Amino acid sequence: MKHEIDAEYRFCTFEVGGQSYGINILAVREIHPDLDITTAPGAPAYVDGLINLRGQIVTILDTAAILGKGKSFVTQDSRLVILRNNAELDAKGIEGIETANDVVGFRVDRVTDVVSVHGNEVRSAPATLDGDDDAALVTGVIARGDDLVRVLDPTLLLDLRPEAV
What we know:
Helix content is 8%, strand content 41%. By secondary structure, it is mainly β. A hairpin with a 2-residue loop joins strand 1 and strand 2. The protein starts with 7 loop residues before the first strand and ends in an 8-residue tail after the last helix.
């Protein structure tokens, strides 16, 4: 996703495997604290399972597995980041973001903040990330004090080809 220099962006930031990540807040439907996930036998390793979210079945993905950080464990700080589906994005007139046709959620270690930045604060992902397991999924980097937030594109996160996982 390309960021316009003069535009303002808001990111939901979270931690996975000790690393800070952010995703455009417009793609996020809600942050859900209920981690009562029903396993899906035979599902790929990056699929945590399913939840019933107010009568809607939602597939939950293990963000750590997708980002190449191995299988993560649920803690009291873990949360589910539920994404809007494409129909919801279209209905709200949100352009430039794609997710999935179904509602999907990601389990993260901890949700940390919502940050607002100008487009010029979202730097291109440095080439030094190329050796990192998550490099193909990181579209930019935001400096927040001493921390670097890796910006993730939901379209890339949901591109679950074996080589991307």
